[in-house]
User: Fold DNA-binding transcriptional regulator, GntR family from Klenkia brasiliensis.
Amino acid sequence: MTIGDRHRPLRDEVLDELRRLILDGTLEPGAHLTEQSASERLAVSRLPVREAFRRLEAEGLLEALPRRGVRVVLPDAEELQTVHEMRVALELIAVRRTTERQDPEVLGELRAALRAGASAAGGDDDGSTLPRLNEGFHEVLARGAGSRVLSETLRSVRNQVHHLIGGRHSTPDVSWDEHARIVEAVLDGDGELAAILMRRHLHARHHEARTAGADQPPVEDRAVDQDADQDADQDADRLS
Assistant:
């Protein structure tokens, strides 16, 4: 990407590029940055970098080092669990409100997102398409709730989860099957079912991403599994 080649404020382009470098792992956890090094890397002045640092600190992706710039936040199991719980709570609010509002434009975007995701999961993905479509799916659901604050907060929380979990993604075809069931419930106007399916989806994919490549889940994951099992039991009672 060339900073300044779009008709957008420079500070927004710098913010988006630094965020992308963090979330795709180019800037690894613990990486040290200064205004000078970042401005040279992006070929911009220090002012938009300073503004971007402040925003990314607020988003939980950078932490300030007194008189030494900033560093990319290091993964922390306890923090990840907290942020995951925040995400679940906010996603459930979003999917319920989206179901209640039944905005025709949003419903059309959800259908289109599912078609694109199903195609990519079927073998047309180059490795970057599905993560982008997954993010877009949750963005549309959040926007459908009709709250800018909710949408922006959810975006920030999702980014924190993605970073703290190490940028790993869950199984694409499974995720999109779950997305399809959520959308079906939304289209049917069943907000409670949509929320149940969303909670199951988030817990299951979160656990899968955390334990990817591991022989068994760590202690923190087993605690998450127990919470998810309790939620599943409660969901089964509601659906019976």
In short: Confidence is low (pLDDT under 50) at residues 213-229. The beta strands are 32-33, 62-65, 69-72. The CA atoms of residues 142 and 157 lie 12 Å apart. The chain is about 70% helix and 5% strand.
